[in-house]
Design a protein that fits this description.
The chain is built from 13 helices and two strands. By secondary structure, it is mainly α. The protein has a two-stranded antiparallel ribbon. The longest helix has 34 residues, at 39-72. The model has no long low-confidence stretch (mean pLDDT 84).
Length: 275
C-alpha cells in the first residue's frame, strides 16, 4: 500500500509524463495548476462537496432516528433489522438501475416519481436527463439509501450496549425523554456516531460507482462527475491517459479528506464521550 502512494506522489510532479515511453519533459507544479483550472475538475469538486454536505448529516441523522425506533420495538426487531439491512448487501448497480427506472423520463412514460408529482399538481420532471438540481436530488437520495443500512446496523448495536441502569436512574427522577436522549443516549453512543461521520465523509468524497449506476459512464456529459470519476477519466482517457493529471487530482482529494478528517478529530476531543 505504501509504494503506490509514493508512486502517485512522484507522478504528480512529472510534467508531460508519457505512459508508453515512461518519460517526461520536466518536474514542477504544472499538473496541479492544470487540474485546478480544469472546468471538469471544478464541476467534479462542486458535485462531490454537495454530495458530502447533504448526504453525510442526513443519512446519519435518519439512521439514528430509525435505530432509536428499532431499539424500542420488542417484537419482530430482528426482522425489521434484516429488512433495513437489505439495501446494503444488494448490488449497487442493480439498485441504481431501479432508481433510474423510477426517476427517468422516456418517450413512453414520465417515470413513476414524476407521475406521482403530477398527481399532486406538480410539473413533470426528468430527474436523470433533466435540470442539474433534479439530478443532484436523485444522486443524494440514492446515496442516502445506499449508506443508511450500514449506519443503522452500527447504531442499533451501539444503543444495545448502553447500560440500562442509566435509564432506570433517569426514570426514577422522572427525566423527560428528550433529556434522556441528549444527556445519556447520545453521549454513550457518541464514539459510534463519530465513527460513522468520519467514514461517511471519506466514503462520500470517494463516490463514483453510485453516479455511474444512475447516469452512465459519461459523467462529464451528464454534469454529475465526481473527483474520483475525474481521476478515472484522466487515468484511462485518450492516448493512454494522463497519469500525471490523475495523480495530481488524487493528491488534491487526499489533502481535502485529510484536512476534514483532522478537523473532525479535533472537534471529537471535546464532543465525544469515551468510557
Amino acid at each position: 500500500m505504501v509504494y503506490p502512494l509514493i508512486d502517485v506522489f512522484v507522478y504528480s510532479f512529472e510534467e508531460g509524463y508519457n505512459f508508453a515511453s515512461q518519460s517526461f519533459w520536466s518536474v514542477g507544479f504544472y499538473n496541479y495548476s492544470y487540474v485546478l483550472h480544469d472546468p471538469f475538475f471544478i464541476q467534479a469538486l462542486k458535485n462531490t462537496f454537495i454530495i458530502v454536505i447533504i448526504t453525510v448529516p442526513l443519512s446519519t441523522g435518519i439512521a439514528l432516528l430509525i435505530s432509536l425506533e428499532l431499539s424500542s420495538i420488542k417484537a419482530l426487531r430482528d426482522l425489521f433489522q434484516t429488512i433495513y439491512f437489505l439495501p446494503y448487501v444488494t448490488n449497487t448497480l442493480a439498485v441504481g438501475l431501479v432508481f433510474m427506472i423510477l426517476f427517468k423520463k422516456t418517450a413512453y412514460s414520465d417515470g413513476l416519481i414524476s407521475i406521482l408529482i403530477q398527481l399532486f399538481g406538480g410539473p413533470s420532471v426528468d430527474f436523470i436527463d433533466g435540470p442539474y438540481w433534479a439530478k443532484m436530488f436523485v444522486m443524494c437520495f440514492y446515496t442516502i439509501w445506499i449508506v443508511m443500512p450500514f449506519k443503522i446496523l452500527i447504531l442499533t448495536s451501539a444503543l444495545a450496549s448502553v447500560n440500562p441502569m442509566y435509564y432506570k436512574a433517569a426514570q426514577v427522577d422522572n427525566t423527560p425523554k428528550w433529556r434522556i436522549f441528549y444527556k445519556i443516549t447520545l453521549p454513550m453512543i457518541s464514539p459510534m456516531v463519530f465513527y460513522l461521520v468520519i467514514t461517511g465523509f471519506i466514503g462520500a468524497f470517494k463516490a463514483y460507482s453510485d453516479e455511474v449506476a444512475l447516469f452512465g459512464t459519461d459523467l462529464n456529459a451528464a454534469g454529475m462527475n465526481t473527483i474520483v470519476g475525474y481521476v478515472y477519466d484522466m487515468l484511462y482517457g485518450n492516448s493512454g491517459g494522463y497519469p500525471s493529471y490523475a495523480s495530481a487530482a488524487a493528491l488534491i482529494l487526499f489533502a481535502i479528506v485529510f484536512t476534514i478528517t483532522t478537523i473532525n478529530l479535533m472537534v471529537s476531543r471535546k464532543t465525544v464521550y469515551y468510557q
